[in-house]
User: Fold these one by one.
Assistant:
Number 1:
Amino acid sequence: MRDTILAIVVIVNVLCGILVYFLPDIGNYILLGIASIGTMLAIYDAFIQKKHSLMRAFPIVARLRWIFEEEREKIQQYFIEDDLNGTPINREKRSIVYQRSKREIETIPFGTQHNLYGKGYEFVKHSLFPKNHHHIKGERVVVGSDKCSQKYDASIINISAMSFGSLSKNAIMALNQGAKMGAFAHNTGEGGISPYHLQGGDLIFQVGTGYFGAGKTIEGKRVFDEEIFRLNAMRPEVKMIEIKFSQGAKPGHGGILPAKKNTEEIAKIRAVTPFTRVDSPPNHAAFSNFDEMIAFLQKVRDLCDGKPIGIKLCVGNNEEIEAMIKAFAKVNNYPDFIAVDGAEGGTGSAPLEFTNYIGTPLIEGLIFIDKMLKKHGLRKEIKIIASGKAVDAFDVVKYLALGADIIGMARSFMLSLGCIQARECNLDSCPVGVATQDEDLVGALVVEDKNVRVKNYHDKTIEAVKEVVAAMGIDTISDVSTEHIYRRDSNNEIITLKKLYY
């Protein structure tokens, strides 16, 4: 095959040369130049380069493989997948975010595309006497245990953790301004508080294992620093503090900021070396057992003058998690909330094995935390925030029914900013300026337009939740329970989630 390709290329080059000889105009010279470049490229592929065996066997032609491979995600998304089979978030779900954020028509014609008789199909049953959704209550929840002196009145839907570094400055500004306009909270992610977070929106200040914005580097090790932490935690925009143990996409690993995205500005905020890959440690240096952890949580609570303190984790070893909650109850000291991240959670960068095979999925993790808090008498004091690919109102209602008090959304709000799920977050080449530090791409994201879309998506989703709850004949969102959610099981029987999980 190599000889055949080389022969064809040479013949084309010779024919172009003959054409120029008899018709020496500019167009034919350009044609000859292209043919000559093709010939030299074929010779290079076949005889000079030794890195790619495929190119040596199929000069020039093999290069098409890399072109198609580079564009595979886009080809898949635009020409192959249907409305329901796309991953991580299918087109139907992406479309509802776009429609709600732009306040466009969000109804669908001609009936559902879902298989209502397939295993795993879930739904709620409506009432003969539905309520007026304008009168449905429960869209806000007060976070704060009896240990907390500055309780926070939170929306049931908030922006989940995404750092400046993972996201662009324009994306962070749009999210925070949208949160301000919609009166909901914006989690900073573990990268610290940047100027772009300080647009007036309520903040959940996340403190990860790298202690960015809450610590410093001593002899190459990141350590918690009380003064640095308090400087950020006492900002009026900060309403809650979240101590991150792990995230669903890479539990037990620690965060990853690719070197390309670690600009001088981001490195200054994080107090690290610019243009180097930044790996957060997998564990906290400030504590190593439950007693030390509880003492650390109390220290953090004292340093921020009693603001709500929480922990974020992806459920791993069940015995370990129960031992932690038991320790909270034993010493009568506990966090104000637990943010449960599912293994299906997203991230800008993670090892494949951690994303695919480590951590408990959200539903099982959420139910386990809910059960353990009830078992040890702490459920009334500790709120649960659930995060795991919630997009539409049914997702929200379902997670609330399974035990969540509040829902955290990350990728959904990225979509409201215009994310097209290009899946280039770790390459610094996000084409819509959401998950990149490339100045040209970042500039394409217009904050004054996207901030309104962030607010719209939040508000319209809350409205949709109220409509679903009203159709069920329920007056208050918090009254939704596992008795109200139904699933078709493997025996083709319809059962409640209460029967399935409780």
Note: The two ends are 64 Å apart (CA to CA).
Number 2:
Amino acid sequence: MRLPWRRRTPAFERPEPPRSVTLEAVGFVRNAVAKPRPRGWENVESVIEMLPEHEARMRGIDGYSHLLVVFYMDVAEGAPEKPETLKLASGNTYGIFATRSQLRPNHLGVSAVELLAVEGTRLRVRGLDAIDGTPVLDIKPYLPEYDAVPGARVPGGGT
């Protein structure tokens, strides 16, 4: 039985997804790290200089202790090697998607970082594994109920 006050809405039809995507930086990383490295990021302090047009979008971010930072590893774009697998220091070989390597098909990085301070459009953070000048694509608040997974499993050799 159709109720007279309820309008029927048309079924949602998903458009064809794009094969390529164009993104713009919302800010840039500033730190003392000049070239990529595989480890040793946990104590690196960086400043994310957000572009001025994003200042209003940062409102309330200072209430969070941690952030998720999405960035583009632009230096890796010019790397001559585009491996499908990597042999890690553990001696184990993993597919590139099972590592944190910058040599990925789309060179995207995601890091959970500690937010130390907000100074205007500058975010001071610790633990961001991105070198000086790296374009930042997005910032999201770290939400433990979504972003922390108790009992998560990783291979014995580490990644």
Note: The two ends are 57 Å apart (CA to CA).
